[in-house]
Amino acid sequence: MSPQKSLSSEAYTSSRKYPINLKADDKALFQHEIERRIPESYLLAIVNAQVTIDGVVFSKDGIVEESLFADAHKKFYNWIYFFGQRLLRRSVTLGKGLLIFNSWSFGYFHWMTEAVPRLYLSRDFLGSHTLILPRVDNRIWNKESSIKSFIKKGSDLNWDDGFLHDSLSVFNISKIDWIEPTSLLKVRELRLQTSLAVSGNYNEKVMKELRQLYQRHYHCRDQTPIRNVYITRRLAERRTVENEEDVQSLLIDHNYEVVDMDQLTFGKQVELMFETRNLVGLHGAGLTNMMFMQEGSKILELKLAGDRSNHCYFALANAMNLGYYYLYCLGETDVQNSDVFVDCEKLGSLVNQMN
Question: Pseudo-torsion of CA 247, 249, 250, 251, nearest 10°?
Fold first, then answer.
């Protein structure tokens, strides 16, 4: 029997504005993102479901595809994976459970823009259902890593403090059930909130409601944003600015604060972004915090030259009604890992334009 489903959010077409400083030669790099179809999302009701630590759900009819991060993951979350789970994991039973995560949920960007919106839409079930969360993150992205997950423990997730803990504090969660690395969870009545959009796209209404929810929770007072902030990735293991000192010096001269988001509590990040008028940062998780900025504020994303596929922050700025600027920077071809060199003359010109 197929899962029963109830509509959580309706489908619509998201229409976005081009970057404010768009160059004619760059238009083709953004054109495919100007209109995106945001699908409907559902709350699925599944009887006698089996849930793995990676958030993959199996029913008696097979894998529940809505539990996967992407369609491509069907190749390695298959029956071999499932039987390995049944053979090597200890079964634990739960009565009523609520599932809002998948195997890619636990980086800051994916957690705040994908998992938390799913929790927000299904929050009415937090009183009657136990929220299901994993103890570790296997971060499975291909068949090899799927197989290795059976013999190698994933990275421990910090649920005691940090952004995972603090971001949940706005919800009235009655009970949490932790999936251990050695366990397979059997749930008699599972509620699965499906994804609201393909990763890097957003249900704008939900994202704006989340902004208000966090601003209220952290007592952000009505005020005009006046701060200028540069998010540094100086201590990051990858995707850094090669001429970081030059960039910082220029921005400090333009009255920017240099901030390492990893050194701030989640609440302080919310408060800082609420007070920020102009935000500059290299493509990376720190820019996710623009979701807490007030409408009409502006962001400048430093991007690898020629990148036409990683427009998640361009889309997020549009979803939050923020002015979006970009600056392409020289670097290697690997978008996910390349360091970049920032043209400070162009950066200074854009900072002046934003003001």
Answer: 80
11 vs 88: CA distance, rounded Å: 40
Query: What are 177's two structure tokens?
Result: 């059930």
Q: Which residues contact 176 (CB under 8 A, 6 or more apart)?
A: 130, 131, 132, 133
Whole domain around residue 309: which residue ranges?
211-354
Cα–Cα distance list, 301 to 142, 238, 322 (Å) = 30, 17, 12
State whether 299 and 347 are in the same domain.
yes
Among the three residues 167, 193, 219, which one is the final residue of a domain in this structure? 193
Write out the DSSP string of 239-291. S-BTTHHHHHHHHHHTTPEEE-GGGS-HHHHHHHHHTEEEEEEESSGGGGGGG
Predicted pLDDT at 82: 85
Within a domain: residue 2? Answer: no
Residue 335 CB partners (closer than 8 Å, separation 6+): 304, 307, 309, 310
- Among the candidates 193, 222, 244, a domain finishes at 193
Report the candidate in 231, 339, 338 with the shortest Cα–Cα distance to residue 285. Answer: 231
Predicted confidence band of residue 238 (pLDDT cuts 50, 70, 90): confident
- What is the predicted pLDDT for the residue at 115? 98
Indicate whether 222 and 344 sit together in one domain.
yes
Quick: pLDDT tens for 126-144: 999 999 999 999 877 777 7
Say what the pLDDT of residue 235 is. 82
Q: In this structure, are 307 and 216 located in the same domain?
A: yes
Q: Are residues 238 and 180 in the same domain?
A: no
In-domain check, residue 177:
yes
Q: For position 192, what pLDDT does the model report? A: 98
Count how many domains the chain has: 2
Closest CA to 242 of 339, 348, 345: 339
At residue 104, the 3 state secondary structure works out as coil
61 and 184 in one domain? yes
Banded pLDDT at 1 (limits 50, 70, 90): low
- What does the alpha-carbon distance between residue 272 and residue 257 come to, in Å, rounded to a whole number? 11
311 three-state secondary structure: coil
Give the span between the Cα atoms of 330 and 343, in whole angstroms. Answer: 8
